[in-house]
Design goal:
The protein has about 160 residues and is mainly alpha-helical. The protein has helices at about 1-10, 20-25, 30-40, 75, 120-140; strands at about 50, 55-60, 60-65, 70. The strands form two sheets. A two-stranded antiparallel ribbon has the order 1-4. The chain has a two-stranded antiparallel ribbon with strand order 2-3. β2 (about 55-60) and β3 (about 60-65) form a beta hairpin. α1 (about 1-10) runs antiparallel to α3 (about 30-40) and α1 packs across α5 (about 120-140). It is elongated, with a radius of gyration of 19 Å. Bound molecules: protoporphyrin IX containing FE. Protoporphyrin IX containing FE binds near residues 116 and 124. Belongs to the cytochrome P450 family. Its cofactor is heme.
């Protein structure tokens, strides 16, 4: 997977001196790798709690005013009812889907959703992509001391 991301980055930046922000839009596999990382390892596993401001009925349940809800992004990202083989790191799942970072699809909300969602999405994604693209462009990465990629699987 790393090689695939590296090939993509090097292909796009082949005849260029440096990577520019405009080049990032073409890096679809790298974007999928970032999404898959945030699906399995959301930086904020529990979103800022929300509180209902009035009594409500949702799907037959009475929700009293002042009820707090904690949204478990970590659990949603690994829910087998929502994702095929959820424990597997498989960036390709995002290549064929239109799910973005913006919280439009509640299956994938690493930046939250709605009015209190993260205002730093674009800044963060651009920065992460640019740094990763440069690391892949300029360096060849290997694991130390004979560690194999498969040895890392238990870390997910
Ligand atoms: C990968 C990087 C980042 C991730 C995954 C992230 C994720 C989040 C999440 C999950 C929330 C809570 C959203 C919610 O409760 O619905 C949040 C809130 C927020 N984030 Fe980020 N964030 C990141 C980077 C940034 C950056 C770079 C900035 C500013 C430059 C930023 C500014 C904020 C602010 C101000 C809030 C509070 C919004 C509010 O409560 O109305 N974040 N972020």
């Amino acid at each position: 997977m790393m090689k695939k991301a590296q090939n993509e980055v090097r292909e796009i930046t082949r005849n260029k001196k440096d990577i520019r922000e405009v080049d990032l839009d073409e890096m679809h596999y790298l974007t999928a790798v970032i999404k898959e990382t945030l699906r399995l390892h959301p930086i904020l596993p529990l979103l800022t709690p929300r509180e209902s401001c009035r009594d409500a009925k949702i799907q037959g349940y009475d929700i009293a005013v002042g009820t707090q809800v904690f949204i478990n992004v970590w659990a949603i990202g690994r829910d087998p009812g929502l994702w095929d083989n959820p424990e597997e790191f498989h960036p390709e799942r995002f290549l064929t889907s239109s799910i973005d970072f913006k919280g439009h699809n509640f299956r994938f909300i690493p930046f939250g959703a709605g009015r209190r969602g993260c205002p730093g999405i674009s800044f963060s994604i651009t920065t992460i992509k640019l740094v990763l693209a440069k690391l892949l462009h300029y360096f060849d990465w290997t694991l130390p001391d004979g560690t194999r990629g498969v040895d890392l699987e238990s870390w997910t």
